[in-house]
Amino acid sequence: MPEAVTRTVTNPPGLLASLDPLLRDWLPRQRWFAGKGRPVTGFSLVAATELLPADARIGLHHVLVRAHQQLAPGAPEEPGDCYQLLIGTREALPPRLAPALVGHVTEGPLAGRTAYDALHDTRPAEVLLEALRTRARIGGLRFEREGDQEIRPGLVPRLMTAEQSNSSVVYGDTFILKLLRRIVPGVNPDLELPLALAREGCPRVPAPAGWMVADLAGRSWVLGVLQPYMQGATDGWELALRELAKGEDFGAEARALGRATAEVHTALARALPTVTLGQGQVRQLADAMTERLAAAAQAVPLLRPYAPALRTAFTALADLAADGRTWTAQRVHGDLHLGQCLRSPSGAWSLIDFEGEPARPLAERRLPQPPLRDVAGMLRSFDYAAHAADAPVPGWAEACRAAYCTGYAEAAGHDPRTDPVMLRALETDKAVYEVVYEARHRPDWLAVPLSAVRRLATPDPA
């Protein structure tokens, strides 16, 4: 086992000033930038670490930067989200790195060099894996490995180009490193839950092999997680669309996916504490959903005609709790959908990406929740897949929803459909979240959650 490598680093003064004008244009165009639609007025540096010398042929800086934005025209700027950037520098970019261009630096310590997103480049990506392999300490960055996990040197990296809210690098079909882009201090569930499940012996979630952390001002910020790469696996979204295009039945896969979900929930309930939700807690849950609905209706006018009927889902839940009904809450995935599930060539399903909904505060994402929150997310995902198909297949989503619930019941011992009030409330809350998300990021998709809103607003949604 190699000893941990410790290295102090010196960052040139004026680094952020040299990058500032380039980042104002580049950062808002990234898929993972959360503040779209609001002008960036400036940046503040949280931390910067030199991983490859700035004057070398290829320079590399790990930068944590907070974007300042205006919430509304004329409003004062406010410090916004903190983002993790891997900034590479070269004298000139080769054509293969043209899509990674951030810009040409004209002032400061990097003047005369070209800045780019270094994850697109082989050498910078290799630096990260080598740091994990050697358990390096570089400035405020800490690279950890799980137990005696072996990481072979020399694995060739490649950046995954699929649209996602973070960035992922695959190393030689052996490991995949997920780099979180929008980061917050504290315990991140994307590391916490897979570690707990691995130690519980749950085979449905790839076990973390290593992770990156920044130690700043007495707090830790999880930056990335290294996990085994499931070679030949297909994510559930791609598989569902493929089967839809061929007119094939997806019921068996949906049923197997339901079983996998229930197995993960059962393992999480064993590994981490559970709580009982009584009248007070359910009232708080219902009130939070009601507040999110009100805010969503304010942000998306198309939602307003349905808001009164949607609110009845939350009122019914609070009324049921007032009559003495209780629920068990536990740690859950938090953002479960077809794209968060992988089917191996052997046919086994795995769940990935336990970060939760990135728009929600970290403390909220780590709260115990009714397991039906994940079920509701998957039911909504079947609806999305059905609408994304080139040729609609009548009844496809409904059949998948039923099969998924059946599979869940087979593994958990109880069917989600036997708790229709909680399920409707959580599915309504999810659809409201989707309406806001699509309105902000993908207006062409807004019709999908709105169709669910119309269904859920009926007195007895199917």
Features:
462 residues, alpha+beta, Aminoglycoside 3'-phosphotransferase, Chain: A, domain 2, 19 strands, 22% strand, globular
Can you describe this structure in just a few lines?
The protein is α+β, with helices and mostly antiparallel strands and 462 residues long.
Question: What does the model show?
Answer:
With about 450 residues, this protein is α+β, with helices and mostly antiparallel strands. The protein has two domains: about 5-230, no CATH class; about 235-455, Alpha-Beta Complex (Aminoglycoside 3'-phosphotransferase, Chain: A, domain 2). The chain has twelve helices and 19 strands. The protein has helices spanning about 15-25, 120-135, 190-200, 235-245, 250-270, 280-300, 305-320, 360-365, 370-390, 395-410, 420-440, 445-455; strands at about 5, 40-50, 60-70, 75-90, 100-105, 115, 135-140, 140-145, 155-160, 165-170, 175-180, 180-185, 210-215, 220-230, 235, 275, 325-330, 340-345, 350. It has an eight-stranded mixed beta sheet, with helices on one face. Strands 2, 3, 4, 5, 6 and 12 form a six-stranded antiparallel beta sheet that branches. Helix 6 (about 280-300) packs antiparallel against helix 7 and helix 9 (about 370-390) packs across helix 11 (about 420-440). It is globular.
